[in-house]
Amino acid sequence: MKRIAHGLRAGMFFLFCAASFAQMASATVSWSWSNSFNLTTAVEHNHNVLHAGDLIVAPNPFNPAVTIIVNGNGAETLRATSLRVYNTNGRMVADLTSGVINNRVTWDAGTHPSGVYVVRAMTGGNILTKRITLLR
């Protein structure tokens, strides 16, 4: 299939055709045309697929624990991963780096107040961040 449209936003589109004929003496012209086609204008992102460079947190909002999954860009990034949680004042409230096993760690925020926190993971040159909400 040939891709002919780039950058179209989702919505309804119409195809119009026009014909122009020079002066034709005593000529009868009969013309009809119909066509149907499918045009994909938007594709939903599947949030359940984990790609290199992703940081997944679930559930969000959470109470009192949240699971954090870091997917770096290769096995060497697992050793270089640092995983920290910051409050909205920029103060580090948890360093979860040593608890990461198979790219996954659970943070128990039972001693922290309700609010918004930022999870920051550094994986070999990439910095990944997610905002999480602790609700009591």
From TrEMBL:
Residues 1-27 form the signal peptide. InterPro entries: Secre_tail. It comes from the Bacteria. Residues 59-132 form the Secretion system C-terminal sorting domain. Keywords: Signal. The keyword Protease does not apply. NCBIfam families: Por_Secre_tail. This is Secretion system C-terminal sorting domain-containing protein. It comes from Candidatus Raymondbacteria bacterium RIFOXYD12_FULL_49_13.
